Amino acid sequence: MRQLWIVWTLGILTLQECFTGTEYNGVIILEITPQNEKEVQCLQNILQSWLLDIWKPLQPENINVKATVRVRIPSTALQLVKEDLLHCSQSLEILIDNVKHIAGNKTETKETRSKKSITEYNYTTYHPMNEIYDWMNEIAKNHSDLVTQHLLGLTYESRPMQYLKISQPSVRHKKIVWIDCGIHAREWIAPAFCQWFVKEIVQNYQNDQRIRKILQSLDIYVLPVLNIDGYIYSWTKERLWRKNRSQYGNGTCYGVDLNRNFNVSWCTHRSSTNCSSNSFCGSSPVSEPETRAVVEFVESRQSDIVCFLTIHSYSQLILTPNGYSAGLSRNYNESLKVAQMAASAMEKTHGTKYRAGPFSKLLYEASGTSQDWVHDLGIDFSFTLELRDNGSHKFTLPEDQIQPTCEETMAGVMTIIKYVNDKYFPNKAPSTVFDCSINILIFNTVLQFSVLFS
Ligand SMILES: *[C@@H]1O[C@H](CO)[C@@H](O)[C@H](O)[C@H]1NC(C)=O
Ligand SMILES: *[C@@H]1O[C@H](CO)[C@@H](O)[C@H](O)[C@H]1NC(C)=O
Ligand SMILES: *[C@@H]1O[C@H](CO)[C@@H](O)[C@H](O)[C@H]1NC(C)=O
Ligand SMILES: *[C@@H]1O[C@H](CO)[C@@H](O)[C@H](O)[C@H]1NC(C)=O
Ligand SMILES: *[C@@H]1O[C@H](CO)[C@@H](O)[C@H](O)[C@H]1NC(C)=O
Ligand SMILES: *[C@@H]1O[C@H](CO)[C@@H](O)[C@H](O)[C@H]1NC(C)=O
Ligand SMILES: *[C@@H]1O[C@H](CO)[C@@H](O)[C@H](O)[C@H]1NC(C)=O
Ligand SMILES: *[C@@H]1O[C@H](CO)[C@@H](O)[C@H](O)[C@H]1NC(C)=O
């Protein structure tokens, strides 16, 4: 009876989360490291039956001996869950006891912004991180049919890296498009674009045939701010900060250029081993927690990811791989064609010129970029987008350019996604309305029969 009650209570909690979107108010993350196969199985059983949000690895099947498992648990369920998990393994630790507290550590300028949640979110202004966290909560809550929020990892300063998954419910096995923004702190237009992108999708997907068609086969994962610590630092201390905030040299210098920290020709081209440098590549490949979080995700979904976009500023470029050699990348001709199509769609929007070409030719040589690491894994469509401007304002793009920049970038990004969708899912025309009505038909029939025969 007690068992039943526990399961029932947790069921309600899970459902509640479902309906209200994910809130990190009093949420706890537990870390458990199973020591043997028996503990692994025990954990798998418990986590599966409770439908808890497993943060690492992404699927219970991938839990392994001696590999740390992280699970997010509503604080109200802590006692019950903890008790049962302790039956599995003694190696249980409470990693963060209140994510909201850490996420919202209000060191940021909040001043005149306290009224915001009543008014509409303003997409044509730059937002500090605490507002972006709130925005993520709200957009997931407001559009729970389409958008869910998930944890990717923790930053160096223990802030949760959250991403939004845009996914239309479907029985199909879908492929993934990844978009990250803000790997470099000072490039504020990038997070602004990620937010704009999500807004556009949720506002238009019901009426826009192109978006509907894409979402039939593709889920889109958006990480609005990758380098959260650095972003906050750029708001509070140093507007032009680029890197993360890890400490090196006995605290004499800070920060790794996260886009030099991936494991691809690491630290060989235009990267520095001097931790004061803006292109410091880190102490080893994937030394940084932010990089590691992205790598773990991409590796775990490697066979599903069909397109990887990383958004930067400035220079107005659509870059194909690679940065670490003058050689052309695997599917260069096709990548270039797609990049050119995107650049042309972007130019059509407001007349802004974007150039398309290989990273090392159009920008500079650079090794250890996420784009190249992902491409080397076998993901063909991997692009870096450098948004406005062309050098007049550089990283401090005026707010009155947020809207036109986002509009043209939207056109470019949708061009790329459409190309990828058409390539991987040619001639898939059936509309979801059709799928849906079939489902409803079956459901009704079953319902009628069950009523008849009950
Ligand atoms: C958040 O604020 C608390 C209290 O001011 C402080 O103890 C803690 O170190 C801060 N955490 C971070 C990650 O800044
Ligand atoms: C969520 O919905 C509320 C109520 O309609 C609205 O005021 C708010 O602006 C929405 N938030 C976002 C981020 O769309
Ligand atoms: C949004 O922010 C921009 C830039 O600060 C401002 O010009 C605009 O009036 C704001 N829009 C609304 C609706 O508040
Ligand atoms: C860091 O400080 C310790 C103790 O002050 C010293 O022994 C060590 O050599 C220093 N390391 C570096 C890299 O400066
Ligand atoms: C980096 O890649 C090399 C070669 O593929 C591999 O041997 C090494 O283990 C990788 N390092 C990390 C930290 O992933
Ligand atoms: C590291 O870079 C800083 C800043 O550019 C410079 O002042 C310093 O001399 C460099 N240190 C070494 C050992 O090159
Ligand atoms: C790529 O395009 C160039 C020039 O159009 C052509 O010479 C080359 O054969 C193409 N490469 C591949 C692999 O199709
Ligand atoms: C940048 O763009 C502006 C407006 O399109 C143009 O007037 C200016 O000449 C461009 N500057 C450079 C360096 O290309």
UniProtKB/TrEMBL annotation:
Q: Which Pfam families does the protein's record reference?
A: Peptidase_M14 (PF00246), Propep_M14 (PF02244)
Q: Where is the signal peptide?
A: 1-20
Residues forming the Peptidase M14 domain are: 125-420
Mode of membrane association:
Lipid-anchor; GPI-anchor
The UniProt keyword set, sorted, is: Carboxypeptidase, Cell membrane, Disulfide bond, Glycoprotein, GPI-anchor, Hydrolase, Lipoprotein, Membrane, Metal-binding, Metalloprotease, Protease, Signal, Zinc
Any idea which residues are catalytic in this one? E386
Q: Where this protein primarily resides, as one coarse class?
A: membrane
Required co-factor(s) are: Zn(2+)
Any keyword Transferase?
no
Where is the protein found, in the record's own terms?
A: Apical cell membrane
What is a single cellular component term in the Gene Ontology annotation? apical plasma membrane
Q: Recall the GO molecular function terms of this protein's record.
A: metallocarboxypeptidase activity; zinc ion binding
Under the heading Gene3D superfamilies, the entry gives: Metallocarboxypeptidase-like (3.30.70.340), Zn peptidases (3.40.630.10)
Q: Which GO terms describe its biological process?
A: proteolysis
- Record-linked PROSITE patterns: CARBOXYPEPT_ZN_1 (PS00132), PEPTIDASE_M14 (PS52035)
Which PANTHER family does the UniProt entry name for this protein? Answer: CARBOXYPEPTIDASE O, PROTEASE FAMILY M14 CARBOXYPEPTIDASE A,B
**What does the record give as the function of this protein?**
Carboxypeptidase which preferentially cleaves C-terminal acidic residues from peptides and proteins. Can also cleave C-terminal hydrophobic amino acids, with a preference for small residues over large residues.
Family the entry assigns: Belongs to the peptidase M14 family.
Q: State what protein this is by name.
A: Carboxypeptidase O
Q: Which gene encodes it?
A: cpo.3.L
